[in-house]
Amino acid sequence: MKASHAIPIDSRWIDLASAIRERPGVRTVYVIGAPDRGKSVLCRYLAGALSRESPAAYVDCDPGQSSIGPPGTIGMQGLGPAGVPAGRPLLYFIGSTSPRGHTLACMSGVKRLAGKADALGYKIIIIDSSGFVLSRAAQEFQYHLIDLLEPDVLAAIQRGNELEALLGNFAVHPGITIHRIPVSPAVAVRTQRQRRRHRQSLFRAYFRDAFAQDLDISGMGMHGMTPAAAGPLSYRSLLTAMCDPENLAVVLGITVSFHPEKERLSLFAPSFHHHDAASIQFGSLYLDLNEYSERTS
């Protein structure tokens, strides 16, 4: 987990951590909020506080501003005492920097990563929502994701009553306890330009030691956001993932060339063990190989 901007610990965060400890059987905590609400910092506080007593896992649902993997992915990181990362992170490829247009992949990915955390024996799973929450489409997406996850605790960070229409759907749910937390005045607001630059720097760091690799893809599965013009040139510069047999990302790459009739893929990617990959997943995001600037077509 990458470091966050420092925000003073709020007494209501301490109260939330205490309430989670005191409620028997709490396994899953879903923290929801729009961008620039401080939810990721709250998640880190909870991770540090709760992992002192029980093995905890952190699931980051934001494919645009991920703190676990590169942009275009969501991730799960196991935590040792005091929130220190333990073990390798698991990544699920979305192929975009927003859930918009990829809601099914995001729901599937969050559920899979939470399930992996549970299977690996983590007692508390802290899930940090994406910032896709305020529009009608976003609230419908969040409704179905919460309904799918059935978290024990739903912690909502909001300005005013901006999430109340969504929270009302779970107000009397027998298995979900809702905690409402106001936004800290110390939270810094980032512009869209700042967010794009941050993603660009994350892509640049991820691909720092990448190189073009010619891959034999015979026998591999293939899925994802196939370009509308499905000729070989339409795949050039497309963000792509090589996935393992469980459909978790092994490595991300930028497609240099794709020749399905020859069963060959040239991928600009960090070094990885080719035999670990069982399938190819194409995203919907194109990246410039020099500047790592983004485009969607």
Question: Which descriptors apply to this entry?
Answer:
6 helices; alpha/beta; single chain; Rossmann fold; Elongation Factor Tu (Ef-tu), domain 3; seven-stranded mixed β-sheet
Topology:
Layout: H1 11-22, E1 28-32, H2 39-50, E2 56-60, E3 73-79, E4 90-93, H3 103-119, E5 124-128, H4 136-149, E6 153-158, H5 164-167, E7 177-182, H6 192-206, E8 211-216, E9 221-224, E10 238-243, E11 249-259, E12 264-269, E13 279-287, E14 294-295
Parallel strand pairs: 1-5, 1-6, 2-5, 6-7, 9-13
Antiparallel strand pairs: 2-3, 3-4, 8-12, 10-11, 10-13, 11-12, 13-14
So what's the overall shape? globular
The percentage of residues in β strands lies in 25-35%
Q: What is the C-level CATH assignment of the largest domain?
A: Alpha Beta
Order of helices and strands: HEHEEEHEHEHEHEEEEEEE
Determine the mean pLDDT.
91
Helix residue percentage: 10-25%
Total strand segments: 14
Structural class: alpha/beta
Judging by the overall fold, what is the CATH architecture of the largest domain? 3-Layer(aba) Sandwich
Tell me the domain tally.
Answer: 2
Biggest sheet layout: 7 strands, mixed
| Gap from first CA to last CA | 31 Å
Order of strands in the sheet with most strands: 4-3-2-5-1-6-7
